[in-house]
Structures are given as C-alpha cells and as structure tokens.
Amino acid sequence: MDMKLIVCIFAALTLLIAGCTGGEQPPIPPIQNQTPPIAQPEITNATLKGYCSDNMVSVSKCGDYIVTVSKLLGGGRTFYKGGEKIRCPVVSPQYISNECKLASAEASTCELEVQCPSAEPELPPAPPKPVNLCENFTSGMACTLQYIPTCVKVQKTSGEIDYRSASNGCVACSNLAEGEIALAIETTSCEEMNLKQYTLWDVGAHDTADACWFYAGNHLFDVTMYMGKHPGGPIEILSQCANNVTQTFAGATGPGNVPLISYLEENYIIGKIVDGEGKLHPEE
After folding, report:
1. Which among 138, 258, 275 has a CA at the least distance from the CA of 200?
2. By C-alpha distance, which of 93, 134, 88 is closest to 107?
3. Domains, the chain
4. Residue 243: closest CA among 281, 204, 202
5. Nearest CA among 106, 110, 117 for reference residue 60
6. Is the pTM value of this prediction over 0.70?
7. pLDDT tens for residues 249-260?
8. How many angstroms separate the CA atoms of 137 and 143, rounded?
9. CA dihedral over 171, 172, 177, 182, signed as positive or negative
10. Which 8-state DSSP code applies to residue 31?
C-alpha cells in the first residue's frame, strides 16, 4: 500500500478519535416554548361587583389581588389572587399573620374600587289601626257603661288626644265628631285617666329630701314640698321616700285633720304607678 495513503488514513482516524473523546462540541440550540402564555381576563367594575354580597362594603382591584372589605368584625379583608384566598380579620398588629402582611403590602395600591349596595332595610310593621270603641255604640262595651259616669279618651282627626267626661258610655260615644275615635272608655274621672304614668324604677330614683316621692295604691305623690307641713314632722315623711305607704298612712291625718291620703290626692298627686307593660301596678 502506498505510504502516503497510509499516512492520510492514520491522520483521519486520529481526528475522528479526538472528536469523540472530548473535543469542543457545538452549542445545543435552546428548546423553544411552543405554548403561548394564557391571557388574563380584564378586571372591570362588573367583575368586582360579582364579589359583592350582603356582608361586603367594597371590592377593589389592587395590583394582582382582588380585595373585599367586610361589614363584619370591624371590616376584615379577604385577598383573592388566582385560586388563592387569604382571609385577614381585623386583629391587633402582633396577631397579624405573615401571609396577611405580605398580601397587604403587595395590594397597597388599588386601581379600581366599587361600593357594594346595601341590602334593603326591612320596613317596620305598620302600627295597628286603633280600635274605635264607639264604632257600634248602640251595643257592646260603650253601652254597658250607660249608667256609670265615664271618661272617654278621644283621638281627634288631627291625631291629638283629648279626654272628655260624660254621664255614661253611650252619651260619650254619641258626642264624638265625625272621624274621631274612642280609644278608651273608663269608669273613672278624666283627671285620673289623664294622670302621667310612672314605674317603680322612677319612684326609686326619688328618695332624698331634695326629691321625695312615694305612692299609695296606684297613686304617686311628690311630697318634697309637703314635708315641712306634715303634722308628724318632716322626718316621718322623709323616712318613707320611694316607699309604698298604702298601709303606713292608712289611718294618718294631714293638715285640717283630713285623712292624709285624701289630702295628698287633692294637692300632691303627680301620676299613677304602672308596670313595664303600662298596666296599673296592683293595689296593695
């Protein structure tokens, strides 16, 4: 074999072996990502309103977050990002979670905000229509009082309340003007019927020499100015402030030797005692 040919073959083999055992390699081209990025939907006011509920005050777009502010527990916030939901109640700074701190920092600037509509308030029930006790005054309650002096509580067409005396229930009803309503017909004087109502709590607050009240039966008396006139001396009255004196003063007399309770009813009565529902306190 020609020596020259042998040298050429040997040289070619040498180069081939060098390339397979660590010679410089050509760079590998990067793999191109063939999947295009998914476009994120645009956040609009309508999008934010979709987060509103009866318990929400507002919804905002803040950076990559949608943030809702709750009406409950002082205005806690919830952060939405992708499928992530972070609830952040209003708590003292030392109890705020790191997750909430990070979300608050990242959502510190807001581009959009909508106010959530308030739920329609429930309307209070309509007040009951007053019952006119004289609607059929020829029969029923009004005429059961036909032989007893009465007082009728009248609601005028203007809405004002008036108290009118009558010789009996039927007369009281027949004297009503058109459109007036008899709210109550009582076998008592109009002065008694028109007395202001007080509870025992009211009485208990008047137990000093500067403001002394007590009651007998259902009648309440302000005896602050009477103490100095009482025949038994002021101490006897002062010791009964805020008390029930029905039995205590049953046989006592006032100025002019008049029964004390009768004297007080003529001069110092200010109201009548009722319970929390407006019913007369039981006489003792």
Report:
1. 275
2. 88
3. 45-115 (no CATH), 142-193 (no CATH), 196-273 (3.10.120.10)
4. 204
5. 110
6. no
7. 888 888 888 889
8. 6
9. negative
10. P
